[in-house]
Design brief:
Rossmann fold; alpha/beta; 11 strands; binds NADPH dihydro-nicotinamide-adenine-dinucleotide phosphate; 2 domains
């Protein structure tokens, strides 16, 4: 029988565990969130993060700017870096046009980089040193572990090579002793590659692109994609209904990877505080 990897439930359990842990800390962890511009989706994401933080006992401060210059944003980040009361800093992406995303992300103190996007933290992931790990791949790995604890020797295909999802995901699976193929838009015969994979992670941004005949019987399928269809409904990058019976385990969209991304942000904030204060 196929296991539905319910990210909504797992995220709830992660938040409950964090909430208990936070009660044992000397003070509440503090997260600074910067929202620049007027993208409605970003505003919703930030509100959800604020609410989730509050519910587990993390204090969040949201800095909202309709418009802000690169210099002003860098000055704010510098002051948050220096502020000993701030444990985590998150800049909501995408940034409005005109702002240099790379420079902004690199300005965040790596110890407070709760999104795990700083080059130093991405590098630490490569050399397997403890550091904040990007929230979405971190959450995906927890979902994969619901299906199978030991991943040694499994073959994995990660579709998508973004810095925020695909690349760190491939790295995490490599660390778990999987044999990993990082696929992308120039990959030849992707369906055939997927058919050989024990684990398929789809982080593409193309509705229902991964078809049932791409999936090996008994595979674990993680769908990172969030796509809005014409009728307003959300769907992933995997044709969920068609693939369901072929898989050992699969994430739905919504209520799969999405809630885990937020839960991992909260976990990264607590871990950042613990590392900084050597708790
Ligand atoms: P990007 O657009 O940065 O990356 C998409 C990747 O998919 C690229 O590497 C691209 O290849 C690859 N790709 C595009 N078309 C194809 C194709 N036809 N065949 C194979 N590969 C292809 O997206 P993100 O990584 O930021 O996000 C991916 C999806 O995940 C989106 O739907 C996004 O909304 C969702 N997402 C969900 C999150 C969650 O919490 N659930 C969090 C973050 C993202 P190439 O590099 O060659 O262009």
């Amino acid at each position: 029988m196929t296991l539905l990897l319910n990210g909504f439930e797992l995220a709830k359990q992660c938040r409950a565990a964090l909430s208990e842990k936070i009660k044992t800390l000397p003070r509440a962890p503090r997260l600074a969130v910067i929202l620049a511009g007027s993208d409605p989706a970003s505003a919703v994401y930030v509100r959800n993060k604020e609410k989730a933080a509050r519910e587990v006992g993390i204090e969040s401060a949201v800095y909202r700017f309709e418009s802000i210059t690169q210099k002003e944003l860098l000055t704010l980040i510098d002051s948050l870096n220096k502020n000993t009361d701030t444990d985590g800093i998150l800049v909501q992406l995408p940034l409005p046009e005109g702002l240099d995303e790379k420079e902004i992300l690199q300005a965040i103190d790596p110890a407070k980089d709760v999104d795990g996007f700083h080059p130093l933290n991405l590098g630490k992931l490569m050399i397997e040193e403890p550091a904040p790990i990007a929230c979405t791949p971190k959450g995906c790995l927890k979902l994969i572990h619901l299906a199978r604890q030991n991943l040694t020797g499994l073959s994995a295909v990660v579709i998508g090579r973004s810095v925020i999802v695909g690349k760190p995901m491939a790295q995490l699976l490599l660390k778990e002793n999987c044999t990993v193929t990082a696929a992308h838009s120039k990959t030849k015969d992707l369906p055939e590659l997927c058919r050989k994979a024990d684990i398929v992670v789809a982080a593409i941004g193309k509705p229902k692109m991964v078809k049932a005949d791409w999936i090996k019987d008994g595979a674990i399928v993680i769908d990172v994609g969030i796509n809005r269809l014409k009728d307003g409904k959300l769907c992933g990058d995997v044709d969920f209904e068609a693939c369901f019976n072929k898989c050992d385990a699969i994430t739905p969209v919504p209520k799969g990877v999405g809630p885990m991304t937020i839960a991992m942000l909260l976990e990264n904030t607590v871990e950042a505080m613990e590392r900084r204060l050597s708790l």
